[in-house]
Amino acid sequence: MAIYERALEKHQTIPQENLNPCFQTARHGIMSSILKQAQDKADETVKSGEKAAQDYVDKGKEVGKQVIDKGCEAAKNTCDQVTGQVEDKLTTGAWIK
């Protein structure tokens, strides 16, 4: 409510002594309504931004997990391949000269 309260305080500093009391009340009510709507819209925008940011964080976690999984799979495949080559050389005696 900080925006609403700050704007309302600013509005109340306008000299109103020469204004008709009915006009003052109406003016205050209209300004309060407009400022309240602006505050509600600002709050809605913040919530929307927070949700969008959280969606990006979640997507980043998902992509990061996929990258790690693919890296682990590649490392496992390389390890299996090297192990197979070593076993082949040991069984065929290729390393023994």
Beta strands, count? 0
Q: How much beta, percentage-wise?
A: under 5%
Tally the helices: what do you get?
A: 2
Taking all Cα atoms into account, the compactness measure Rg is: 34 Å
Features:
2 helices; 86% helix; mainly alpha; 0% strand; 97 residues; rod-shaped; single chain
How would you portray this structure in words?
The protein has 97 residues and is mainly α. It has one domain. 86% of the residues lie in helices and 0% in strands. It contains two helices and no strands. Helix 1 runs antiparallel to helix 2. It is rod-shaped, with a radius of gyration of 34 Å.
What's a quick, concise take on this entry?
This protein is mainly α and 97 residues long. It has helices at 2-12, 21-92. The chain has two helices and no strands.
